[in-house]
Amino acid sequence: MTVQHDSSVYERIQAGERFQELRRRYRSWAFPMTVAFLVWYLLYVLLSGFARDFMGTTLFGHFNVALLFGILQFVSTFLIAWLYSRHAAAKLDPIADELRAEEEDK
Amino acid sequence: MSHETLSTILFVVFVAATLGITFWAGRNTKTAADYYAGGRSFSGLQNGLAIGGDYMSAASFLGIAGIIALSGYDGFLYSIGFLVAWLVALLLVAELMRNSGKFTMADVLAFRMSPRPVRTAAGVSTIVVSIFYLLAQMVGAGALVGLLLGVHSEAGKIWTIIAVGLLMIIYVVFGGMKGTTWVQIVKAVLLMTGAALITLLVLGKFGFNLSGLLGDAAAQSGKGEAFLQPGLKYGTEAQGLAGKIDLISLGLALVLGTAGLPHVLIRFYTVPTAKDARKSVQWGIGIIGVFYLLTLVLGFGAAALVGRDAIVAQDKAGNTAAPQLAQKAGELIFGEVGGTILLAIIAAVAFATILAVVAGLTLASSSSFAHDLYAHVFKRGNATERQEVVVARISAFVIGAVSIALSIFAQSLNVAFLVALAFAVAASGNLPAILYSLFWKRFNTAGAVSAIYAGLIASVILVFFSPVVSGAATSMFPDSDWHWFPLSNPGIVSIPIGFLAGYLGTILSKEHNAAKYAEIEVRSLTGLGAEKASQH
């Protein structure tokens, strides 16, 4: 079952200061981070296409820069996923829960 | 006992178990929310496993292990795009979709638009993307049975396709989202266990010396150290600049496509809240990431232990590298019986993998047909829940039957490119429409419709005139040549077209609904008014 709210409720919340803060906190984290990991990934693909000598440089044994770069993509993906959950739990969820609870309890 | 017999027995056990689950789930499927979204009652971990089960197709398990085994590093490059893509879903899409949508992708796109044109476009795109993906999987299943079970007759392949198709129809028609999700969870656990087991055996064989494994793989490959570097498969030096641009184009479609794939998007509706959607994507990222790291060891392990000649002798594309490695590793460590058992296990897991993925695709496309096209376009929103679910079940049957027929027709053609095409359409048409819907106040009906159709049509046309369809020895139609587009992957052209069309469509039309934007924005970020889990 889903509670229907009048559209004026949403416009009022949207105009409110706390929602604006929630929106700012969400966007100012998610948007730059998206740009960052896309650039980081594209750098990896571009190097794989155009800087093969560099990517083939041996680091130790049979382990080269290309493998290191690939593993780092895994590491950064896991890291960003973890950082996002921390950010969301600390900065986003409290405001979102509060705004939702206020309206649902009415 | 031969490995074929053992594989068949294991597979029959899997089918029996999943059918049992499906009928149990079917008895608990009463409302539309049960059928489309599994009652929204799965936990973050369960849905995370199902995300893995839905996403790790045979193409990514056998295909990527095979590419690594034959072309080395480039297979790894491919898998990284599949993984990083989940960050787009996590940061921008999963939670907001969960809060603002109901059953399908179109629920979010049509939220503040004129519903009929937008739902029509989203429904068409969903069905096209899902059927492309389905065809690649089902034709692959036909080829795989020949390789793994020794069935090489034409009739054997056709019967395999029919059997896979019938099972997927049964899972979806009777089990709905609940049954399908459980099939995917079981499959994910089996696949991860199987891959981890073989990985441990391979690493053990090399005394857990990764560098030693890489060295042996490079030496056995006949390519030397180049085997451990990019460039043997994608954007080879022989292909010149076009090849390298093609590599970037593929990378773009992979990284941006996932968050626009309808069967991925509907997974976010199966959990009670946006927080659970977030958790499930995080579990998904963990599972998929670990899986691709295992695949890296499997691929290089196959190159080192099975060897190029033995792999190519079985299948030129290397799709049997992982099962062959399972057999070899088992033999080396436990003797011949061990090899037979491991090969049988991995072969059975491969079929389980295909079944779980095709069921997810059939569910996504039939849900969209029933909820978007039937209930909202034909019936203008006047269908009852009961009617909708009946239509969803019928369309699952019809889509399944059509896929079986198309797959039989296409089984001798090289249709592996359809997976990359599905990602390209999702990235070019669906993703711009979703992102604009969630984040751009001014976005409107004309913009949504333009983005979806432009992205869809541009991707399909460019691929139709590319070397994957005609004009090359590996084309779908190798004996004809009508190609003029030099790249195999359209993404680098079609993705900007989709985003641009969405922008132009929007600014050229005055219509837009500020009140509804307030609703979707507040709802997506706070969950106020979001669909609740059903109470049982």
UniProtKB/TrEMBL annotation, chain A:
Database matches in InterPro entries: DUF485
Superkingdom of origin organism: Bacteria
Keyword presence, Transmembrane helix: yes
Segments crossing the lipid bilayer: 29-51, 63-84
Assigned keywords, A-Z: Membrane, Transmembrane, Transmembrane helix
Name used for this protein in its record: Membrane protein
Species annotation: Sphaerimonospora thailandensis
Automatic annotation (TrEMBL), chain B:
Any Pfam family the entry gives: SSF
Sequence intervals crossing the membrane: 6-26, 47-70, 76-97, 118-151, 157-176, 188-208, 247-269, 281-306, 341-369, 390-409, 415-439, 451-470, 490-508
Keyword Disulfide bond: no
GO CC annotation, single: plasma membrane
One Gene Ontology term from the biological process aspect of the record: plasma membrane acetate transport
Topology in the lipid bilayer: Multi-pass membrane protein
Primary localisation category: membrane
InterPro entries (UniProt xref): Na/Glc_symporter_sf, Na/solute_symporter, Sodium:Solute_Symporter
Protein name: Cation acetate symporter
Organism: Sphaerimonospora thailandensis
